[in-house]
From TrEMBL, chains A, B:
The gene is trkH. This is Trk system potassium uptake protein. It is a multi-pass membrane protein. The keyword Oxidoreductase does not apply. The chain crosses the membrane at residues 17-38, 50-69, 81-103, 147-172, 193-215, 249-272, 284-303, 341-363, 402-427, 468-489.
């Protein structure tokens, strides 16, 4: 993880950025050998697409590294860090789309738009798919989609811990730790935490895969779904997602796995270090409390509207509510057919999001907590204009600049959401499809609502320009808006 | 206009509140004699309903005043002002519904829900109607609906100038003037401004009525529409609103009238006093600039989609865009049938609103200006973490507490909008109907979008509980959220 120094505002020095992007591409090219192996093993000719892409990616990566070899001793400047983050994600997504585009699989090879959409949707852990008939897709394509989501998940944890707090965007400065603080240089400690998190991530995935397998999935399905569960990402190997398995155990395993992925990963590390007060973490408690209330109400509604018996009602409510709130996007059934009120609730849930520092996307719990603090102190101030009402969060004072960052994040989120919705409607999509696609892409949920892109549908029929807009929205949301939008400020590029 | 002192936080002294509410009821009972006269003149038996209601209202008003006779020398306490505002509006709306409920008119007499909805929609200048077949409604009912909107319009100007700034809600403290400032006691000056504004309001209405008449309306239609144009309120005497008149002049008069009503009325006073720099008022310039851009784009779309010739395209675009942005709610045609992109744009426009201190509702221009200042300074701060970027508005420093108020207003607006949308969906209304009804009621626009409540529809078919929810939303939005919501804080009622 790169250290960011916010003291300097140097002219654009792209050398270190190119070197880091090149390194990422080398890692990506190595990852492409995994689906190649799967296809080889299944005697599927597609292994050539992955091998070719791996070679191309490796060549580009090696080229970038060799022409930009430099030392990162001084860390990155603020501007470099701002450029690095979206550039890395975009470049990796472009190269990740190559094997899909080169493959023999008819639904992707004919259209770079579809290949890129699928790659971005994977890497950003969104999980919206253009494919119909997943069960007939070659194993290499399926495992590559799952792998992209898994790598995207660990990538966003790293970004949220190491980069965003130092950039001070969206209130993330609240989570400045030793690993991102500009004033300290405890690199060994950073490495230690990073190693711990990656090990945990691997461990959780393995556990999840074994559990799915014991619950009745094939080893391949178990692995593919484990990769996309812990990363709260949501790609499946079947069109009807987890609805393909009727064993309740599969759904409960998914619920536990998605929740595990939506919790800040540093908390696990602290818990393993014996810091038991971690269990009282504010974000986690609010998330679980909120989920409990919504699942209870939704179960009641499902029972009272005679859609399910109590047990099934609780399972389907828990599965799909947890899926949307953690921004995973799995579905155990077509909840879009649960009636208008359910559509309204699921639409609203797409604006919630999981915890910061996890693989979950969306607005995220801590921002709602900060807004609640602001509202509370404001109403007190209205009643007692001369009173002073300090705000605090997690036992510490809540700085005004964090509140301002969070407020600006909300505003930007709603601006982006509104603009994308209207752009989609300009392509003659209906209101529910446009609005739900916009928030689903921005929050990296995956499925939308309505007749086309609902939990039982796919993004395939949408016009190509809409797919590019949504792919942009996924990156925008995944990188917490600011890091992308700031690049559109002319002043950013001036001296 | 009552002076508000924010220094005291006294125990609930309802005496002055009851006296002021009683006074309002007396004024309302006098106003009821106008529709009574119209019905008498038209030899319609409905005059009895108005006469009876007038008597009942007068009796209640006189009773309240007599049991609470007190001196207002000390002004109102903060808490009294908070209670007074929603209580007055609610009481007046309840009594204003009486003649509609007592009338012989079949669409209103059978249901107090319908009568109350129509009265609240009138008084809050919303203009959503439950009636089908307006052209057959008795003249008394039609003129009472128009009169309610006209009185509601001047009522909200008074509230926005005299009460809200002193309460410090929603950033309105930015508009503290001599008339509302706690530290000065220039009551003659207040009276002078109030008289000037009321005279202007009367004058604009008369001008508008004459213009409509000259353009071909009957004197009755001209009067009824003038009353609801200047108040940006939108009740019509025909189901197809201003689409009933095909003369372009009628639409252009409406456009000018709606714009006149959406501009802060104190600006006219200042202009008449010779302060020509008033013309550079920031809110007004942003409003007109924004309208110009949207109307131009919408006209282009109408021409390019071959719906209208250029001239008609500009007229219909201007008419309906101005109608929605100024929260009037007139329609020159069913713009809900202009295709998905138009639906998206009109939906978005309902979130804009006119200028503060006018009769227009909605979020309002100055709040967007304040948010833009916040976003701008925040992005600069991201680029230059050590820089200091003071915010200013209209040439003066923009205090942090105003920014906070505006931010809280936006949050509350979106919370209310979301909750109301989901409540409406719980009554099995579709997403577009629910969402557009919610924002239309909160912003006091009037018509919604979709098959039921679009510009060509009515709110009549909605279930009764939905009508009550929307009536509440209209009052909530009209009184700028805070003044209503604060009454739900338990602490407000404690010592
Ligand atoms: K997802
Ligand atoms: K209106």
């Amino acid at each position: 993880m790169a250290r960011v120094s916010i003291d300097t505002w140097a002219p654009p020095a792209f050398r270190p950025i190119m070197m880091l992007v090149g390194g990422m591409l080398l890692a990506l090219s190595a990852a492409m050998l995994i689906p190649a192996a799967f296809d080889l093993f299944a005697r599927n000719e597609d292994w050539r697409a992955f091998a070719l892409s791996s070679a191309v990616t490796a060549a580009f990566g090696a080229g970038l590294v060799s022409i930009s070899r430099t030392k990162l001793a001084g860390g990155l400047t603020l501007r470099q860090a701002f450029v690095l983050t979206p550039l890395t994600w975009l470049t990796v997504a472009l190269f990740a789309a190559l094997p899909l585009y080169f493959s023999d699989y008819a639904q992707l090879r004919d259209s770079f738009t579809n290949a890129f959409f699928e790659a971005v949707s994977g890497l950003t852990t969104t999980g919206a798919t253009v494919i119909v008939g997943l069960q007939d897709a070659p194993p290499g394509v399926l495992i590559w989609r799952a792998l992209l989501q898994w790598m995207g998940g660990i990538g966003i944890i790293a970004t949220a811990i190491a980069i965003l707090p130092a950039l001070g965007v969206g209130g993330m400065q609240l989570f400045r730790t030793e690993s991102s603080d500009r004033s300290e240089k405890v690199l060994p400690r950073v490495r230690e935490i990073a190693t711990a998190i990656v090990s945990l991530y691997l461990g959780f995935t393995a556990l999840c895969a074994v559990a799915y397998w014991l619950a009745g999935m094939t080893p391949f399905d178990a692995l593919a779904h484990a990769l996309t569960t812990i990363s709260t990402a949501g790609f499946s190997t079947h069109d009807n997602s987890l609805g393909n398995w009727t064993t309740p155990a599969v759904h409960w395993i998914a619920i536990v796995g998605m929740l595990a992925g939506a919790v800040p990963f540093v908390l696990y590390v602290r818990l393993f270090q014996g810091q038991l007060d971690t269990l009282r973490n504010s974000q986690v408690r609010v998330l679980f409390g909120f989920l409990a209330v919504v699942i209870a109400l939704m179960s009641l509604w499902l029972v009272s509207s005679e859609r399910y018996e109590l047990g099934d009602a609780i399972r389907h409510a828990a599965m799909n509510v947890v899926s949307v709130v953690t921004t995973t996007g799995f579905a155990s059934t077509d909840y879009g057919a649960w009636g208008n009120v359910a559509v309204g609730v699921f639409f609203g849930l797409m604006f919630v999001g999981g915890c910061t520092g996890s693989t979950a996307g969306g607005v995220k719990i801590f921002r709602y907590e900060v807004m609640a603090r602001l509202l509370h102190s404001h109403f007190l101030h209205l009643l007692y204009p001369r009173g002073v009402f300090p705000r605090s969060y997690a036992g510490r004072a809540l700085p005004d600049d964090v509140v301002a960052s969070v407020v600006v994040f909300f505003s930007l989120f709603f601006v982006c959401y509104s603009v994308i919705t209207i752009v989609l409607m300009a392509f003659d999509l209906d209101f529910l499809t446009s609005a739900s696609a916009a928030v689903s892409a921005l929050s990296n949920v995956g499925p939308g609502l309505g007749p086309i892109i609902g939990p039982a549908g796919t993004f395939g029929p949408l016009p190509d320009p809409v797919k590019w807009v949504l792919a942009f929205a996924m990156l925008l949301g995944r990188l917490e808006l600011f890091t992308v939008l700031i690049l559109f400020m002319p002043r950013f590029w001036r001296g």
